[in-house]
Amino acid sequence: MPVRILNGAEVSRLLDMATCIDGMRKVLMALGRGQAIQPLRTVLRLPRERGAFAVMPAQVDDPDAFGLKVITVFPGNEGTRYDSHQGAVLLFEPAHGTLVAVMDAASMTAIRTAAVSGVATDALARPDAADLAILGTGVQARTHLEAMRVVRPIRQVRVWSRDSNHRREFADWARKRFGLDVKTADTAQAAVTGADLICTVTSSRTPVLMGSWIRPGAHLNAVGSSLAAARELDTDAVRRARLFVDRRESALNEAGDFLIPRAEGAVDDSHILGELGDLLLDRVKGRERPEDVTLFKSLGLAVEDVAGAHLVWREAESRNVGTVIELGGLRDA
After folding, report:
1. Whole-structure pTM over 0.70, yes or no?
2. What is the CATH topology of the domain spanning 2-109+302-326?
3. Per-residue b/e over 18-34, b at no fewer than 16 CB within 10 Å?
C-alpha cells in the first residue's frame, strides 16, 4: 500500500496556524464529548539522563483516524544543530488499519502545541489583550508568537531568555517575519511586567515566572515543562490563577507546574477547573471577571497530533506533496 512520507519543511508548509487552531478546537471538543481515545503517553527515561523516548497513541472519531507519535526529547540539544524534540507521526486509515502517512514530529509538535495555546487564549484571555510576553526563544517561542497573532491583535511583544544572543536573534526573526518591533528584556520580570498575555516556553526545570509579577487580568500559557518534577511557574502564580488543562489525567501525572504546588499544600485537585474541551463545550466557566488571572497548562496530547496529521495528509494528497513509497499491507494474489 502507498505511504506518503512528509519532511519537516513540507509539514510546516501544509499546516498553517489558523487552520491548525481550528482543527485543535474541533478535536478538543471531540475529546470532551468522549469521541476520542486518549491514553497516557508511555515514556522511557534513557540512561545517564540523556533524555526521554515517548510513545503517544490516540484515536478520534472526527476526523475518523488513529495513529501515534514516537518522539525523543533531549533537552541537552538546546544550542546545538539538533532539535530537542525529534521523531515521527504515523497516521492510519480506519477502514482496514492501513498506514497512510509518516511525517516529521518536530514540526507537527511545534505547530499543534502553539495552536492549542491559541485555542486556550481565544477562550480565556480578555478580548482586548494585546501586550505579549514570551519567556523562551526556541522553536515554540516562534510558533507561539504566530498563534497569539491569530487570536488576538498583538501590538507589543517583549521576549526574554537567559542568552542575550538568542533574544536578539528572536527579535530579528520576528521583525523580518511579521514586521513586529519585538523588545528584548534583560530579565523575565521586565518582560512580563504589564503584559496581559504571557507564554512560558522554556526548558527550565525551576520557575522562571513568579506570581507577584503577573498583572491582574492576564492570561498565561505554561508550555515548556512536561515533567512531574519540573516547572516554569512558581506556586503563587498557579495558586492565584483559574487553571485549565488539556487533559486532567495527564496533568495529575505529568504537570509539575501543578503537582509541586499541590505537594506543598497550596492547591488541591479541585484547583483544576476543567479541560479545554469542557471549556469549549460550555461545561465550565472560564474568565469570570476582567481582573481574573487565567492559566492554561499545556502538556500535549496524541489526539492533537493525529488530528494535525490528518489535516496535513489530506492537504498533501490534494497537492501531491511528499514522497510516496510502497510499504506492503496487501496479501499476494
Report:
1. yes
2. ornithine cyclodeaminase, domain 1 (3.30.1780)
3. ebbbebbbbbbbbbbee
